[in-house]
Design a protein that fits this description.
single chain; Rossmann fold; ABC transporter transmembrane region fold; alpha/beta; elongated; 14 strands
Length: 578
């Protein structure tokens, strides 16, 4: 319970940090709220004065009443303008705060370590940055619009009532805490419910995102029924927690209205007795009853807003939790000038502390050498690539490029030193030309075409409706997997960095095209250090060094002929394919 209370306080504290940036508009909102409430509360006094001018039939001061009515009209007009300006200020505060939060969330997304992305679903992250921020905005806007006005109305009404008759005001103040107690009790329960609702909604968004992205796989394996069952289970949990949250929140208004009715009744009875005995005039009693109604009205509004605020706070806690995630370690300012020399010394690494993967890994690569990494699935081949690119940092040991520890240079200079072609393709929405020139935006069309020809992508690109200006969707749209891979190969051939990483780079390409690309790769690799991850051993026979990995360790090392002569694990792998 103490932890939840601390979380709520921390969330509110961080929320006010964002609001504080727009303190001028907050001050203006409060000022115009005060003007609006003051004039609204002044009107009942004028009405009371007008009532007192109606003494009896034939004894009505029409001139005085007309003057009061004119004043009331001016008050109402100014109140309307003040409320309009106040709403403009509130909208500006809310949507600027939401803008700032989304910017911070997206900026944090860019610097979060890959470990966080691997541990959280895309749908969950999208839900926090989009849906939760929208819910937070709704609650915040309602809070500014009604809470400020409500608090000023309560304080102002009490002051006006004290001026008219302190005795009746005491009756109102004595009954008020009951309404506050009821609202606080309900708010405490609704926060937990709305937090669970927000979490479950994120889980549902994650499932939908996953299913849309993998629809072919779901249908290919006939998993539609299982997916529907899983969705129904999450949807049912969301229904239950949403109903509980709505049930508790719906109690607020009727409960506070009941208490407020007691206040109004007490004021009416006590005021009537005083009026009979000459304690106050009929006009003052009229004003007091109007104030009693206005005094209780904000409690109803604020209690309704509390429901939205609890939902907003629950959503804010999730988005602030994301914004406060620990970013990847800060990098040194040193730029790397790669020369093709790479050295891994006593490297230990594991994704999960209790499950060791790579242990005491040592490797020394000279300029221009081709290093092939082979082994069974899960042995750590791709992990080595992740460590070289510093997508993950080693747990212990060191990796040096050109004699420099990679943790002592900027990530950008390190990553631009490598050209990567992976089994998974990286394409974005845009033209074919833009996708090929992603690593070299200033490349001319002739350079792009030359790279496409070298990767054997030119022929299929020319057959597209607009050739190199054909727009493709996210992740390649309607292109085949092989065509996507050819574009990624062309991208690397355009940049030609000093080091290459080829992780199953031709896995989706037909055999004839693969032979041609292997020749192009052979030309491209000359004078460049290359790391090749492959399951098909036919693609790495010409490698200078072949590392055979098993359970995170190098168990054999040498060229193709040397390893075959040993008759070890590599020989077993080779014979299983040929």
């Amino acid at each position: 319970m103490a932890k939840k209370e601390k979380l709520r306080k921390d969330t509110m504290k961080q929320m006010f940090q964002y609001v504080k940036k727009h303190s001028l508009f907050v001050a203006l909102s409060i000022l115009f709220a005060a003007v609006s409430v003051a004039l609204t509360l002044y009107v009942p006094i004028l009405i009371g004065d007008a009532v007192d001018l109606i003494v009896a039939p034939g004894q009505v001061d029409f001139e005085g009443i007309m003057s009061i009515l004119l004043t009331i009209g001016v008050c109402i007009g100014v109140t309307g303008i003040a409320q309009w300006v106040m709403n403009i200020c509130n909208n500006r505060i809310t949507y600027h705060v939401v803008h700032d939060i989304r910017e911070d969330a997206f900026a944090r997304l860019q610097i979060l370590p890959l470990k966080y992305m691997d541990g959280h679903s895309q749908g969950e992250i999208v839900s926090r940055v989009i849906a939760d921020v929208d819910q937070f905005a709704d609650g915040l806007l309602m809070g500014f619009t009604q809470v400020f006005t409500g608090i000023v109305t309560i304080v102002g009404t009490l002051l006006f009532m004290l001026v008219i008759h302190p005795g009746i005001t005491v009756v109102v103040i004595v009954i008020t805490p009951v309404s506050l107690f009821v609202a606080a009790f309900i708010a405490k329960n609704t926060y937990d419910m709305f937090q669970l609702q927000s979490k479950t909604r994120g889980e549902q968004t994650a499932l939908i995102d996953e299913m849309i992205g993998n629809q072919k796989v779901v249908q290919a394996f006939g998993r539609e029924g299982k997916v529907l069952e899983r969705f129904d289970e999450i949807n049912e949990r969301l229904r239950k927690c949403s109903l509980k949250a709505i049930f508790f929140s719906s109690l607020t208004n009727p409960c506070t209205r009941f208490v407020n009715s007691l206040v109004y009744a007490a004021v009416g009875i006590y005021g009537a007795v005083l009026a009979i005995h000459g304690g106050i005039s009929i006009g003052q009693l009229t004003s007091f009853l109007s104030y009693a109604n206005q005094y209780t009205k904000p409690f109803n509004e604020i209690s309704g807003v509390i429901t939205e605020l609890q939902n907003a706070l629950a959503c804010a806690a999730r988005i602030f939790d994301f914004i406060n995630e620990t970013p990847q370690p800060e990098e040194k300012a040193t730029e790397l000038t790669a020369d093709g020399h790479v050295e891994l010394s006593h490297v230990d690494f594991s994704y999960v502390p209790e499950k060791p993967l790579i242990q005491d890994f040592n490797l020394k690569v000279q300029l221009g050498q081709r290093v092939a990494i082979v082994g069974p699935t899960g042995c750590g081949k791709t992990t080595v690539i992740n460590l070289l690119m510093r997508f993950y940092d080693v747990n212990s040991g060191s990796i040096r490029v050109a004699g420099k520890e990679i943790r002592d240079v900027t990530r950008k200079s390190l990553r631009t030193s490598f050209g990567m072609v992976l089994q998974d393709t990286w394409l974005r929405a845009g033209t074919i030309r833009e996708n090929i020139a992603m690593g070299k935006p200033d490349a001319t069309l002739d350079e792009v075409i030359a790279a496409a020809k070298a990767s054997h992508a030119h022929s299929f690109i020319k057959r597209l409706p607009q050739g190199y200006d054909t727009v493709i969707g996210e992740d390649g749209g309607q292109l085949s997997q092989g065509q996507k891979q050819l574009l990624c190969i062309a991208r690397v051939m355009l940049c030609l960095p000093p080091m290459l990483i080829l992780d199953e780079a031709t896995s989706s390409i037909d055999t004839r095209t693969e032979i041609r690309i292997q020749k192009a790769f052979a030309t491209m690799m000359q004078g460049r250090t290359s790391f090749i991850v492959a399951h098909r051993l036919s693609t790495i026979m010409e490698a200078d060094i072949i590392l055979v990995m098993k359970d995170g360790n190098i168990i054999e090392q040498g060229n193709h002929e040397t390893l075959l002569a040993k008759g070890g694990f590599y020989t077993t792998l080779y014979n299983s394919q040929f």
